[in-house]
């Protein structure tokens, strides 16, 4: 039931702070110790490489997961689009462990990979929002996202829930393998800060609606840019806008723009930059300048400690690794208001189904 909300998507965006709290309660003790199946952790620890498999938004959540598993647990991690992996499998390591990210647990492309993984006898984990879904039944282990039903076709709370659960898992694994960075990472406290930060952003709806009207409503082309983890969020931000507002939008590694794509920038093209990582903040700012010099209308979404006068949207500070949980929220709302004010059916965009059960 969407209650007083005009569309499920807005309700689901608003639910994200609570989803963060729910995940912390479910998978962490009061003191922050992980409450995760020991056998699962041991199976992951025994692997020499993790392979994250997903489609669409779930693939994008995997791109953040790679950073979390590599930083916190020091386990090399690859992320693959399921429809590609199924038919062109890369060379595997000796002891692979597979993580399937799938909100619905029914995506045919991802299931096809799991069937092959099971035939080969490799261990696997499905992270899903739907108990007893096909991928959860067929994998060795399952963890539930506890995000509550996600009805809108555009995935929002499942993305942030997947990232938060990957962070909990990476922290637990890192502790098991004795990584100091994992021991010092106070995940419980961080998820609390994330929940509060998300609330502050969803409380800024009017501002985001205004930004959408000013920069996105009348355009047919836009860019989200960033480096590293900000690039990964750019891909998700662009998918949201494409999917429900039908604006052609690319998520781009900001340093790569000048190698060709910058030719698309015209007077007024919106270019939105994510700046949440200290080591690349200056670079992304100069890449934004380069687009501005070609007529782009630039907008910045910046974490507080990196913000300067004139930034458009300032995000509360949480650990750098968890900034995607906050930076994606304004992008979800920008997509929502653009779709809404174009008079489109936000929850049911054309040509799309909630779960894609054909390959
Ligand atoms: O249920 P899944 O997570 O496996 O779905 C994967 C994609 O179909 C899904 O994330 C899709 O990209 C969303 N509509 C994006 O908002």
UniProtKB/TrEMBL annotation:
Species for this entry: Levilactobacillus brevis (strain ATCC 367 / BCRC 12310 / CIP 105137 / JCM 1170 / LMG 11437 / NCIMB 947 / NCTC 947)
What this protein catalyses is: D-fructose 6-phosphate + L-glutamine = D-glucosamine 6-phosphate + L-glutamate
Annotated SIS domain residues: 40-179, 211-349
The UniProt entry's GO CC annotations, sorted and at most eight, read: cytosol
Q: What is its main location?
A: cytoplasm
Q: What protein am I looking at?
A: Glutamine--fructose-6-phosphate aminotransferase [isomerizing]
What role is this protein assigned? Catalyzes the first step in hexosamine metabolism, converting fructose-6P into glucosamine-6P using glutamine as a nitrogen source.
Instruction: List the EC numbers from the record.
Output: 2.6.1.16
Task: List this protein's GO terms for biological process.
Answer: carbohydrate metabolic process; fructose 6-phosphate metabolic process; protein N-linked glycosylation; UDP-N-acetylglucosamine metabolic process
Supply the alphabetized keyword list: Aminotransferase, Cytoplasm, Glutamine amidotransferase, Repeat, Transferase
UniProt keyword annotation of Repeat present: yes
Name the residues annotated as catalytic in the UniProt entry: 354
Tell me where in or outside the cell this protein is found.
Cytoplasm
What broad class of enzyme is this?
transferase
- Give a yes or no for keyword Repeat in this entry: yes
